[in-house]
Amino acid sequence: MEELFREYNEILFSANSCAVEGNTFTVDETRELRERRISLKL
């Protein structure tokens, strides 16, 4: 359970960090990118 909570928080953090940088990824898109191991850095 703790591992799922940590992963969820990391996805939310990534989605919010991308939004601050001007990206328009949704939380679901961020999760999918993470699951496919696609870098969010440009």
Give a structural overview.
This protein has 42 residues and is mostly helical. It has one domain. The protein has two helices and no strands. α1 (2-20) crosses α2 (27-35).
What keywords describe this structure?
42 residues; mainly alpha
Architecture blueprint of SSEs:
Blueprint: H1 2-20, H2 27-35
Helix pairs in contact: 1-2
Summarize this entry quickly.
By secondary structure, this protein is mainly alpha-helical. It contains two helices and no strands.
Structural class assignment? mainly alpha
The amount of helix comes to 55-70%
Number of strand segments? 0
- Quaternary class: single chain
H/E element order: HH
What portion of the residues fall into strands of 2 or more residues? Answer: under 5%
End-to-end Cα distance: 32 Å
* Gross morphology: globular
Mean pLDDT: 86
Radius of gyration: 10 Å
Low-pLDDT ranges: none
Number of helices: 2
Major beta sheet summary: none
Q: Please, how many domains?
A: 1
